[in-house]
Amino acid sequence: MSSFPWRVFAFLALTGFAAQAVAQDRGKVTNLPIPRYVSLKADEGNVRRGPSLSHRIDWVFKHRNMPLQVTGEHGHWRRVQDRDGQGGWVHYSLLSGARHVIVERDLTPLRVKPDTEAPVNAYAEAGVVARLGSCSLDWCRVTANGTRGWVRKSALWGVEPEELRE
């Protein structure tokens, strides 16, 4: 009897287990995916060294709607990081599930439709925070300062490359 079918079965079982472990990476408090994106819903948000009021404030986020990535949970606290990888612990009441993104590339065109040949509504500077709308595999619809348009997903921070949104 050949050992080949057993090896195939073992490989499939191991890779299936690994895929399942990745797919089930969820927060222990909310059961929501980790990592995930949220936005700062306040004008200011203290970023603490640990998940409690007794921990030192390392800095303050000062931009309403700034997208943040949640990387951990503990009680009413979320460990977050910004696009530069800087972060710490923020109280959950300062965060919103309403999604925003940051334009990464200077003079990014906001197009009428998701097509590189479509007319341009406006150009966004690097660092502009925009409300995230629907996303296809390569494009996202955003609203920035009252102007709507489609942007290449690769020009944005705050949305996963494979993420689809309706």
Overall pLDDT confidence? 89
CATH topology of the largest domain: SH3 type barrels
Broad structural category? mainly beta
Summarize the amount of helix as a percent range. Answer: 10-25%
**Gyration radius from CA atoms, angstroms:** 20 Å
How many DSSP E strands?
14
Give the overall form.
elongated
CATH domain class of the largest domain: Mainly Beta
What can be said about the biggest beta sheet?
A: 5 strands, antiparallel
The N- to C-terminal Cα distance equals 52 Å
Strand proportion, as a percent range, falls in: 35-45%
Q: How are the strands of the biggest sheet laid out side by side? A: 6-5-4-1-7
CATH architecture of the largest domain: Roll
The string of secondary-structure elements, in order, is: HEEEEEEEEEEEEEE
Ranges where pLDDT stays below 50 over 5 or more residues in a row are 1-22
What's the CATH H-level superfamily name of the largest domain?
A: SH3 Domains
Q: How many helices? A: 1
Domain tally: 2
What does this protein structure show overall?
With 166 residues, the chain is mainly beta. The protein has 2 domains: 27-98, Roll (SH3 type barrels), CATH 2.30.30.40; 101-157, SH3 type barrels (Roll). Helix content is 12%, strand content 41%. It contains 1 helix and 14 strands, in the order H-E-E-E-E-E-E-E-E-E-E-E-E-E-E. The protein has one helix spanning 4-23; strands at 36-40, 45-48, 57-61, 67-74, 77-81, 87-91, 95-96, 100-103, 108-111, 120-124, 129-135, 139-144, 147-152, 156-157. The strands form 4 sheets. It has a 5-stranded antiparallel sheet with strand order 6-5-4-1-7, with no helix packed on it. Strand 4 (67-74) and strand 5 (77-81) form a beta hairpin.
